[in-house]
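Summarise this fold before class:
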Amino acid sequence: MRPKCLHHGRSSRWLLFWLCWASAVQGMYPCMVVNGFVNVCITTIEKRYDLRSRDTGMVAGAYDMASVLCSVPVAYLGSRKGASKARWLAAGMVIMGLGSFVFAVPHFFTPAYHVTLGNSIGANMSTITCSLQAIIGETCDVSRDVWLANFRQVFMLGQVLHGIGATPLYTLGVTYLDESVPVRMSSLYLGIYYAMAVVGPAIGFVMGGQFLNIYIDAPYTDPLSLGLTTESDRWLGGWWMGFLLSGCASILVAWPLLGFPAVLPDHEDRINSPKGSVKRQRSDNGSSTAVAAFQDLDDFPSATRALMSNVTFVALSLAGAMEGILLTGFATFIPKFIESQFNVAASFSALYVGFIAVPAGGGGTLLGGWLIKKYELSCLGILRVLFTGSLFCLLACLGLLVYCPNHEFAGVDVHYEQK
């Protein structure tokens, strides 16, 4: 930060503040645990671009694939001697913003949404029914609007950029924050940071639900003139608006992060303060670090073998992977599941998910960080807390076994009479 008036912002508290906002903004669209804008708009995008659940699953998975492929290179390059983690974080936010703009591009390259059938109660029934004799010998035009499905490639590109941009937040961001605070405060700071990663998707669900109450082609088309309301089956909301907002927010948050130095001025005092119970080694460039896993790419295979032989590390990694599989699947399709099971609009489904995610995810993360700091839990104590929470989660999943049966559809689920 060149202006002297901004020098007081070079502290661990301000670093936490801006990292939390970066994590919250990142959580609005793709996100690590609970997804925001992307998953709110899943059903709307499927209808508008003639996509299947398989296609939208690939779109959602593109984020994770890009993040996995970039994690090791970004962690290595950002941790090298002389590298600035703050600049890597800022660059990641800019890339995420570009990905958000790319994700919204299909809306501006497709024609206006055309409603062919009336949906209001007062509509003339002759427009939504047909004569059996009139369709004998005719075939359906399956080629109509099939070309819209090709936009899934654009959606996947946007998600890839999201994944690349989010990688520094959960590799370098955690390390940068941990290096800048006293050891005893580290768990609380990280708890707040991860809590914002859950609050972000919740904000995305709530805001995305509100955007879905706005017609997709607003303000150029009045839905009332088409006989459409938010309760109509053929209503499509403004799914693209949230991505423009989050794209701008990502780029704005990048600027404060760019002003932080590689090492905070009060870093030495915090590490050597009496409140810190652990001394950390210092590298030649002045950054706090533990013993490095590898200093060069040639050491990467041996470092990988050492990690893979660590049973505790492997077990924790597998546990995190299983949790990620479960939560990613839930986050992607839970709004669609609520829509179909409870027959509610997409906007209300998003609100329900958002209201659940804030107290559950954010509160749980903050509670975990507070418990570690309050009771100074050891590794064994932390693992016991994790096991207890996982047990309650497993019991709650039994509720998914209770569901409503599908409506019977003549000719599909059941036979016609005498046929």
The longest strand covers residues 281-282.
